[in-house]
Amino acid sequence: MTSIPPETLAELEAEITARHKTLSKRLRQVAHFMIERPKEVAFGTVAIIARDADVPPSTLVRFANAFGFQGFSDMQKLFRAKLVEETPSYNERVRLARKHSQTSQHTSPMELLEEFTTSNMVAMEQLIKEVNTNDLEKAVSIIYCAQATHIVGFRRSFVVACYFAYALRHIDQRAFLIDGVGGLYREQATTLSKNDALIAISFKPYATETQDTIMSKPNGVPLIVITDSQLSPLTQYADVCFVVKEAEVRSFRSLTASLCLAQTIAIGLAYRVEEELNGSSQ
Question: Which keywords fit this entry according to its UniProt record (predicted)?
Fold first, then answer.
C-alpha cells in the first residue's frame, strides 16, 4: 500500500500506470475506469461508479486504500479538482456536441458537420493541454538522430501511420511504413537497425499486430507511441508516449487530434533540420 497518497490527478494516473501490472484483476478493472472516465468518477456516487465499472463498491474503497487514500472520497477530490481547472466553455461545448445524438431522430448532414466540428475543436483544445513540451522535443530528437524511421499502425491507426510516413518523406527523411502485407509485419520489423527509430500508433481495441511488431524490433531501437490511454499495452515499451483523446460522435471516433500531433512532430523535425543546416553553414 502506498503510504503517501498522490496530491494531483496527474500523479495518481502516473502511479496507476506504473503499478498497473501488479494490481489484481478487479483493481485493474477499476484502474481502466478511472483513467478512461474521469468525469464520471468526479461526479458519481460510490454505488453508481461501482455499477458502471462492474465491480462491488468495496473494490473502489480497496483501490483508494491501495494508493494511500483513507477512503474513496479522498481520492475522488483529485478528479473534482481537475474538473475545476477546466473552463465552463469547454464543458458547454461537450454538452452541445452531444445534444443532437441524444434528442434527434433525424439529423441532416449539416447538423452532423456541426457535431463533428465542435467535438473535434474540443479534442484539439485538450491536445494542447495534455501534450508535454519535453515529450515533443524528445520525439523530434529521436527521429532526427535516426538513420531511418519505421511507422506501424493497423486498423483505425493505419491512417495516421500512412500520413506520418508521407509527411516524413516530404521533408527528405527516410521513412518506411510497416503495412503487414502478406502478414509479414514481424519480418518487416526485423529490418530495423539499432540506429533506426520506430513509431507505433494504436487505439482501443489495440491491434495485436502492432504489439507483435514492437516485440520483434531489435533491442535498443527507440520507440515513439501514440495511443489513447495511459493503460494502453504499448506504453510500457515507449521511450516517448503521447496519450491522445479523440472526439467521438454517435460512436464514430475521429483521428483529427492524432493527425495534428503527427503533423506537428514532422514539421517540428523539418525546422530542426533547417536550423542545423543553417548553423553548420555559418
Answer: DNA-binding, Transcription, Transcription regulation
Angle at 89 between CA 84 and CA 91, to 5 degrees: 60
Q: pLDDT tens digit string along 96-113?
A: 545 544 545 566 788 778
Amino acid at the residue 110? M
pLDDT digits (tens, 9 = 90+) for 50-103: 888 888 889 999 999 998 888 888 888 888 777 655 544 545 555 554 554 454
Kind plus residue range of the DSSP H or E element containing 34: helix 25-36
Nearest to 143 by CA among 167, 178, 127, 159: 167
Signed CA dihedral, 15, 18, 20, 23: sign only: negative
**Chain position carrying cell 502511479:** 15
> How many helices (H) and strands (E) are present in the chain, helices listed first?
13, 7
Give the pTM: 0.69
Alpha carbons 153 and 134: distance in angstroms, whole number: 24
Q: Is residue 109 part of a domain?
A: no
Domain limit, last residue, from 52, 85, 118 = 85
Whether 113 is in a domain gets the answer no
Instruction: Tell whether 270 and 184 lie within a shared domain.
Output: yes
Domain housing 199: 133-281
Average of per-residue pLDDT values in the chain:
83
d(CA 254, CA 33): 21
- Domain stop point among 48, 66, 85: 85
Q: Quote the number of domains for the chain.
A: 2
Do 53 and 138 share a domain, yes or no?
A: no
